Every structure is written in structure tokens, then in C-alpha cells.
Amino acid sequence: MTDTNLFQPGTTVVRRDVHAGRVWTAMPQRVVDDTGLVLTLASWPGIESLAPTTWITSLATGDDTARKQGLADLAAGTWTLGLHRWQGTEVRSHFLAGEWFSVHCFQDAATREPLRWYVNFERPYQRQPGLGIDTMDLALDLVVTPDLSGHHWKDEEEYAQLRRLGVVDDYTAGQIDRARGRAIGMLDGQAGPFAAGWPTWAPDPAWPLPTLPPRADEAAPSTVPYRA
């Protein structure tokens, strides 16, 4: 990969979830670093993104029914997007080229207290020049303590529902099974994003909030292939 393909530190890119040619989420984030192998992004309170209205409702009310309906809408292609403002946490995210998961560090935005590492299982990201990256969240997560001493799996029921609904096919499930092992191996060996331990960082107060560009909700059917 040549330098012209890399995102420059300090610029804004949009991380999108795309399914069947439609945008499921779109969040602008600031580029911290881009080596071609690891893309590091930052997000913090106040950033506005696009997300399914069912997910926004579930987050605001704790209504699990709305969250489950969102998965059914995803499978049927019938979701509606709304604006969501990020609150409460600062997040430093690591996207690994060709990998079926990304690694995120969540910290309290007010106190900078480390909260959790979060391994998000998703399709390998595809670069969209001039915009950002497209992937697709597949629900399954691995939550790790800040000191790397403990972990637990999260949203396995939602992942199973995506399997039943056909959003996660057999090929994808096989990729996720192998990615689980790689993620645990990376954690146990304190390799990759885990190698240096918890990152000490904070958004620069001079940074403006990243914003969504026009037509961030438009995607071509081939944006994220079903085979990687």
C-alpha cells in the first residue's frame, strides 16, 4: 500500500456499517495514525452519527424489544436511520487490515478512567477513498478488563439471531469462529493493540468535532463483499 492510499493523521474519516448495499451506521472519527496495517481512529462525546432508529430507541430507553426488532429490520432491509450523538466515553479504535475484528479502548470522558477493551467482530474493512472505511458489525463482542486480566463474551444471543436470520451465513460464521481464536491468542499473548497495555491519551481540546459529509448514507451494493 502506498502512502497515497493512507489516511492522514488529523483528518476525518467515516466508519460505516454496510449491509446489502445500504448503510446501517455512519460515524465520523479523527485519524490518529494509519500504517496501512493498522488504522487508529478516535471518537469522543458530541460527535453525531447515523444509526438505526431502533438502536437509538433501545439505547435511550433500555427497550430490548426495539433492539431485537432492529436485527429483524437488518435482515429484511427495512431499517430507518436517525441522528445519534455520542455521549459519556472517549474511544480509541484500532482497525486491523484484513481482520474480522477491531479493538477499541473505552474511557470515561470526564475522568479519563479506563473502562474496558472491546473487541468488535465485523467484516474486514474496505477503504473508501475520500470518505473512510466500510465494514459490518456482526453483533458478537469480547469485553476485556483494562489491565487485560479478565474477559467475557457479549451479545452471543444477538449473534445467534443474525445466524438464524441469515445475515451471518456459514462462510461468515466460519470466519468468525477462527477470528475468535485469533483475538483470544492476541489477548493472551498481549500482542497487536494489546502489546503496549492501556494507551494514555485524550482528545486534543483544539480538535473540532468530526462531522458527517454529505451523502454519507449512500453506498454501492458492492461496497463490502460477502467474501474476503
The biggest sheet amounts to: 10 strands, mixed
Order of helical and strand elements = EEEEHHEEEEEEEEHH
> Which sequence of strands runs across the widest sheet?
9-10-1-2-3-6-7-8-11-12
Q: Give unreliable regions as ranges.
A: 222-228
What sort of overall outline do the alpha carbons produce when their principal axes are compared?
Answer: globular
Count of discrete alpha- or pi-helical segments spanning 4 or more residues:
4
User: Structural class of the helix and strand makeup?
Assistant: alpha+beta
Structural account:
By secondary structure, the protein is of the alpha+beta class. It is 22% helix and 36% strand. The chain is built from 4 helices and 12 strands. Strand 2 and strand 3 form a beta hairpin. It is globular.
List its salient traits.
228 residues, alpha+beta, ten-stranded mixed beta sheet, 22% helix
Secondary structure elements and their pairing?
Layout: E1 12-19, E2 22-34, E3 38-43, E4 48-52, H1 53-61, H2 64-76, E5 81-85, E6 89-96, E7 101-108, E8 114-122, E9 126-128, E10 132-135, E11 137-144, E12 151-154, H3 156-165, H4 170-188
Parallel strand pairs: 1-10
Antiparallel strand pairs: 1-2, 2-3, 3-6, 4-5, 6-7, 7-8, 8-11, 9-10, 11-12
Helix pairs in contact: 1-2, 2-3
